[in-house]
Design a protein that fits this description.
The chain is about 40% helix and about 20% strand. It is α/β, with parallel strands linked by helices. The chain folds into 5 domains: about 25 residues; about 35 residues; about 140 residues, Glutaredoxin (3-Layer(aba) Sandwich), CATH 3.40.30; about 240 residues, Rossmann fold (3-Layer(aba) Sandwich), CATH 3.40.50.880; about 30 residues. The protein has a 9-stranded mixed beta sheet, with helices on both faces. The chain has a 4-stranded mixed beta sheet with strand order 2-1-3-4. Strands 5-6-20 form a 3-stranded antiparallel beta sheet. A hairpin with a 2-residue loop joins strand 3 and strand 4. Helix 5 crosses helix 6. The radius of gyration is 46 Å and the shape is globular.
């Protein structure tokens, strides 16, 4: 086998060699015939090489020329200025973007560094809340029942609520805020079997105590003409602050409102008390007993006289088996009705209601344009000592004056100016107010009785239901809310500091500048700035043109 392969290889090698030999012989035979052609081909090749060399040189010169122009362009004054401008512009844009991102991250982590320019201070807590939460000595957890992204992304109102809620952590390290999505954690509701929890609710908890805040607690809503609801106010701060106060307070003072003597709306008064850690309930004295643990009872603007059973229960409550220490607050409405039983009860405490409505004649004491709505002055320092600003007035309206019948028992709390006049309930068309003498009237008074060890029971009478009006309580220009809380704290000996917090009105413009400021800034932006820019552009153009 090996010999056959070697023979085959040998034959192929032999054949190849023979073909080579044949080629070489042919070349030698044609040499003499091609001797003249060889020099011409060589010349053509040399000419082509020369031409290629010249083209290469030309290309190199062209490249050098272009490179020189580019270098000159980059070194030129125009390029230096233009390049720097582009560079600075790019750097500035990048810097603005980066700074904006950094500021956004910082203010998100530390909301206190953000600024609220809205007129209503929508995103800031009131000083009362700041003072209160700063002094917290108990841990509080605020749980929002939704994921943070879905809650804040729902609409602008939820974003406002979340932004305001974050402010609480800025003033107390005792407060923690967490988000729990009920969709992702449906079993979470088992922790609160007695409550009906919904997406978007808040749970404010401290220790074993908690309060649930629903959407209606957090937002003020009004029905529109198409029966849809529009958010008109943000109540997050009063709701959350009140809840924190309630879950951290050691004890709550019980107050009962007497029901069953006519239609009336005491919701503003009740809400104010609840916001300040009072346990508020109602009692029908005709059929129910007054809670013996209650510190005070309230009869708010009745439209019918008391019955004998109710009078007896009120008297027994105030006497407290001779121990006293209880309080009865009566707020008179402007509706006239016969009330001999109620009148007799007040008379025992040195007071009675006047027979008419007060009209204020001093224009400086009139609020608005109606003489029936006026500013009231304080006349008892015992009930103003806890106020933060006792220079603010109380506003009242449709005032039925309180007459002091026993100065040893009763004293004034709030009074009108000395220019006020009384319009009788039975005044007819011939009534002439000019013939009525002006005098100072009592708008609120207190009657006091005490036991042998100086424990007091008090009957406080207000001649104006408007003093407890929701708008009057909310207005920061008046002291209505603060005065009512201070008064209740004093008579019930509640040591908790009063907190009067208003919600954020979202129906007013949020831009916190006046119309004069808007006009001034409009002139600056539309007039001054454009003129300055045009002048600067002309100066730069002329200087460059002359160079």
């Amino acid at each position: 086998m090996s010999n056959e392969k070697e023979n085959k290889d040998f034959d192929e090698m032999s054949k190849g060699v023979s073909e080579n030999d044949i080629t070489e012989n042919n070349v030698d035979t044609d040499n003499s015939a091609n001797e003249e052609a060889v020099p011409e081909e060589t010349a053509a090749t040399e000419n082509a090489d020369v031409q290629d060399g010249e083209e290469k040189v030309a290309d190199e010169k062209s490249k050098k020329k272009k490179n020189g122009k580019l270098k000159a362009l980059f070194k030129s004054r125009k390029m230096r200025k233009g390049g720097l401008s582009v560079a600075f512009t790019a750097i500035f844009i990048v810097a603005v973007v980066v700074i904006n991102m950094i500021v956004g991250l910082i203010t998100d982590k530390v909301p206190a560094l953000s600024f609220d320019l809205s007129a209503q201070q929508t995103y800031n807590l009131s000083q009362d809340t700041i003072d209160f939460v700063s002094a917290l000595n108990k841990d509080v957890t605020i749980t929002v029942l939704a994921s943070q992204s879905s809650y804040e992304g729902a609409n602008e109102y939820y974003l406002m609520a979340s932004t305001l809620l974050k402010q609480y952590k800025n003033y107390s390290d005792k407060i923690e805020i967490e988000y729990v999505d009920l969709t992702a954690n449906p079993t979470y509701v088992n922790n609160y079997p007695d409550d009906t929890l919904k997406q978007g609710d808040y749970i404010v908890k401290s220790g074993d105590k908690h309060r649930v805040l629903s959407t209606s607690d957090l937002f003020e809503q009004e029905m529109q003409s198409d029966y849809s609801y529009q958010v008109t106010g943000l109540k997050v701060e009063p709701a959350v602050t009140t809840a924190i106060l309630n879950v951290t307070a050691e004890n709550q003072v019980k107050v009962q409102f007497i029901d069953g003597f006519g239609d009336y709306d005491a919701s503003a008064f009740k809400n104010l008390l609840e916001q300040n850690n009072y346990d508020v309930s109602t009692v029908k004295t005709l059929t129910e007993d007054i809670d013996k643990d209650a510190e005070a009872i309230v009869l708010y603007a009745p439209q019918a006289d008391l019955d004998d059973t109710s009078v007896k229960k009120i008297k027994n409550f105030l006497n407290n088996n001779g121990a006293y220490g209880k309080d009865f607050i009566y707020v008179s409405g402007s509706t006239q009705f016969d009330s001999p039983k109620l009148d007799a009860l007040l008379e025992e405490w040195g007071m009675k209601m006047g027979d008419g409505v007060v009209a204020e004649m001093d224009s400086s004491k009139i609020y608005g344009s109606s003489p029936y709505i006026s500013l009231l002055d304080y006349d008892n320092t015992d009930y103003t000592s806890g106020l933060k600003d006792s220079t603010l007035n109380i506003v009242g309206g449709n005032i039925v004056p309180v007459e002091i019948t026993n100065k040893n028992t009763a004293t004034n709390l709030l009074v009108t100016s000395a220019s006020a006049k009384l319009i009788p309930f039975d005044a007819d068309n011939d009534f002439n107010i000019e013939k009525v003498d002006a005098k100072q009237y009592t708008a609120a008074a207190v009657g006091t009785k005490s036991s042998g060890d100086d424990v007091e029971s008090n009957v406080i009478v207000f001649g104006s239901e408007l003093i407890f009006n929701q708008n009057a309580i909310k207005m920061s220009t008046f002291n209505n809310g603060a005065y009512i809380v201070n008064m209740m704290n004093k008579v019930t000996e509640n040591t908790d500091e009063g907190i009067t917090i208003s919600g954020k009105d979202l129906t007013k413009p949020n831009l916190g500048i006046t119309s004069d400021q808007i006009q001034a800034w409009s002139i600056v932006c539309m007039g001054v700035f454009p003129v300055v820019i045009i002048i600067a552009a002309i100066v730069i153009y002329v200087r460059r043109r002359n160079r």
